[in-house]
Amino acid sequence: MTRQRRDGREAEGTGGPGEGRRVSGEEADAWRELVGTARRTVADGLVVGTSGNVSVRVGRTVLVTPSGVPYDRLTADDVTGVDLTGRQVLGTLVPTSELPMHLAVYRTTAARAVVHTHAVHATAVSTLVDELPLIHYMAAALGGPVRVAGYATYGTGELAENMLRALDGRTGCLLRNHGTVTHGDTLPQAYDRTAQLEWMCRLWLTASSVPGLTPTLLSRDQLTEVQQHLRHYGQPR
């Protein structure tokens, strides 16, 4: 089935726009946080223009940034939401073209938020290796060594499948010649994981660029030890 974009062109989808359903208070709050997070990806240099996308799950509804709309133009009236099948249930703006990736994460994990960026250093690393070298122990915060998902055209089911394989047992991965994907229990957590992944990629590129020297890497055993320490990190709940 197709639905109409605001510019009159048809876009692929599984249902029509959901302007008939009212936005709940929880969804309105989540949308404000989503827009703030999307704008932060631009301010922090993780995306350029409208590249990248952000989503958050509220019950069985996934709120997601719309396709091709600058984040600074989004308002409370632009809520865009789909169900877990991809059927649009909120708003009239066409959801991001990367919707298959977001939905794949929600269908297979307990994640409540997903952040996808085209961060420069992370994307550069995705073209060089199949796994980010263990340059820093914060890889443990993402579940272990960060894998690179095989390349596929953006917005396709193939890319979503490649991403899921790279995310197995992880909360973040790189997408070959494309960018990053991280997920978390909250938008701040998913965003922090994205920022941490970009920082580790920048660190490895910087260290490995010194002529005549090779960066010292951590062992898998050292990373496992850090993972055990992280279980007790932060304030008690």
Give Rg in angstroms: 18 Å
Share of helical residues: 25-40%
Intertermini distance = 47 Å
Mean pLDDT: 90
Shape descriptor reads globular
Write the element-wise H/E pattern from the N-terminal end onward. EEHEEEEHEHEHEEHH
- Count of helical regions: 6
Note the quaternary state here.
single chain
The main sheet orders its strands as 6-5-4-3-7-10-9-8
The count of β-strands is 10
Low-confidence stretches: 1-16
Reported for the largest beta sheet, the result is: 8 strands, mixed
How much strand content do the residues show? 15-25%
Class by alpha and beta content: alpha+beta
Topology, pairings included?
Elements: E1 2-4, E2 10-12, H1 25-43, E3 53-58, E4 61-64, E5 81-83, E6 88-90, H2 99-108, E7 113-117, H3 120-126, E8 148-149, H4 157-167, E9 172-175, E10 179-184, H5 187-208, H6 220-230
